[in-house]
Write a structure and sequence with these properties.
The protein is α+β, with helices and mostly antiparallel strands. It contains 8 helices and 14 strands. The protein has an 8-stranded mixed sheet with strand order 1-2-10-7-12-5-4-3. A 4-stranded antiparallel sheet has the order 6-11-8-9, with no helix packed on it. The chain has a two-stranded antiparallel ribbon with strand order 13-14.
């Protein structure tokens, strides 16, 4: 069982309701309106016709399947060594006691081959692994930049690169993670399977998260009233999550979505690949001035991404860390 915080697991009823599905091939004006609505209402949307080549996705999936199929004795050779979170991990999520029914690999996304945090990991992998990850990260980074620029257009910001330039910075702290959730064994599938947690309730601290998974279910997002919504995906689709930093940049207009992954009820493994778009460590984060007005007062203090990251990872996974940075007048 996953332990996300000292508070009990939220088990409010799940319900399959309409989740925004956005077609990136639409005209820019229509697209921007759809993205704004989805980010305001859900903090989440599914993306189709996204333009990332299927061969890039397939090679990435093949590479990570190859990695996770290795014996544990091979995978632990590149295990994460605190305080660095990068490398292979199993069950442990962060350093504060959170665990889940999964194994994962976490890489710095800026430069896979040269980043010191990645060298020991990729040096132990075949060339096709390094190439597949590099190509995939580059493709989803470009996609993320495009989405952020369309989003800025929809917000009527004079500079449509104001958010996207944060992840294009050469010192961007973006990272790439692949989670592997093994299938549930039949004998363990009998005792309250709906309450088996693969990855506990949380929001992502970064700007945007771009997720691609296989067709094994498990992902759920939470609505503002606490209802859990199962998310069905096709292997060619992407899921897009609003992160804490984007909530701050938009002065609360968008809400970072809380989500979790349930351990699936079959013997099939779930694989999900996530690009977490983040600014550089020293980048100052504060609400965009054009989104503050007498009728929409400033909600959040200014802070560096490094300050927020340290605060976020000092807490339990399910804690509401963004509340630490709210202006006193809004508390």
């Amino acid at each position: 069982m996953f332990l996300s915080s000292s508070s009990p697991l939220r088990t409010k009823k799940t319900q399959a309701i309409g989740i925004p599905v956005i077609d990136l091939s639409l005209d820019t004006t229509t697209l921007s309106h759809h993205i704004i609505a989805a980010c305001q209402d859900y903090g989440f949307f599914k993306l189709v016709n996204h333009g990332v080549p299927i061969q890039v996705i397939s090679k990435m999936e093949e590479a990570v399947n190859g990695f996770f199929s290795k014996p544990s004795s091979e995978k632990v050779k590149v295990k994460a060594n605190p305080p660095s979170p990068f490398g292979y991990g199993c069950r442990n999520i962060g350093f504060n006691g959170d665990v889940g029914e999964l194994e994962y690999i976490l890489l710095q996304a800026n430069s896979l081959s040269t980043c010191s945090d990645n060298v020991s990991v990729v040096a132990n992998q075949p060339t096709n692994f390094r190439c597949a990850v590099d190509d995939y990260i580059q493709a989803v980074k470009e996609l993320t930049s495009e989405l952020l620029e369309i989003l800025a257009l929809g917000l009527s910001l004079p500079d449509t690169n104001v958010i996207s330039r944060l992840i294009q910075d050469v010192d961007s702290d973006s990272c790439f993670r692949v989670n592997h959730y093994p299938g549930v064994k039949p004998e363990s599938n009998q005792a309250k399977p709906d309450h088996r947690i693969g990855f506990g309730e949380h929001s992502d601290p970064q700007i945007f998260t771009i997720l691609r998974s296989n067709d094994v279910p498990g992902l759920q997002i939470s609505t503002v009233d606490g209802l859990w919504i199962p998310v069905t995906t096709e292997p060619t689709d992407f899921c897009v999550f609003v992160g804490d930093v984007l909530e701050v940049l938009t002065n609360g207009r968008f809400k970072s979505v809380r989500h979790r992954v349930m351990a699936n009820k079959s013997n099939m493994s779930r694989m999900s690949m996530m690009y977490f778009a983040a600014p550089s460590l020293n980048e100052w984060i504060s609400p965009i001035p054009q989104l503050i007005s007498p009728g929409n007062l400033r909600l959040y203090k200014s802070f560096t991404w490094n300050e927020y990251k340290k605060a976020a990872y000092s807490l339990r996974l399910g804690d509401q860390r963004i509340d630490l940075f709210k202006c006193q007048s809004t508390l």
